[in-house]
Amino acid sequence: MRRTAFSPPALLRLALARLALARLAAAALVAVMLAGLASAGAVSPARAGELVMFERKGCGWCRKFDADVAPVYERTEEGRRAPLRRVDLSQALPADITLASPVRFAPTFVLVDEGREIGRITGYASDEAFWGLLGALTEKLAPDRP
What is the model's pTM? Predict the structure, then answer.
C-alpha cells in the first residue's frame, strides 16, 4: 500500500480541521444533552434573584403557604424580582445553588442571587409575616435586577 506524502503545512491544516470538527461535535453533543435534560425538568439553573422554597412531602406549613401565598406570588413585585423555585428536601441540593448553611426545616425560603444565598426565611407562620420578611430580604438584591 502506497502512502501519500503531505507537506508539513498540509498536515497542519488537516490536523487543525480535525480538531475543529471534534470541538464542533463535542459542543453539539453537550447542547443536545442539556436540551434533553432541561426539557425533562432535570436542569433548572438558579437565576439572578430567585426564591428557592425547600419543602417536604406532607408538610402542613408548606400546604398553608400554598393556600395563602403561592396563588398570588408570581403576580407580586417580589415574585417578579425573585421567581419561586421549589426543591424537595428529600432530594440532593441542586448543584447550581450554594447555601450559607444546610436547610433543616420545611418550609425554608432561601433568596439566591446568581446561585448564592443572600438570605433566608425559616418556617412559615402567616402571609403577613412572610411578606414582611421577604420584603426585607429582596431589598438585598442588586438594584439592576428586573
Answer: 0.66
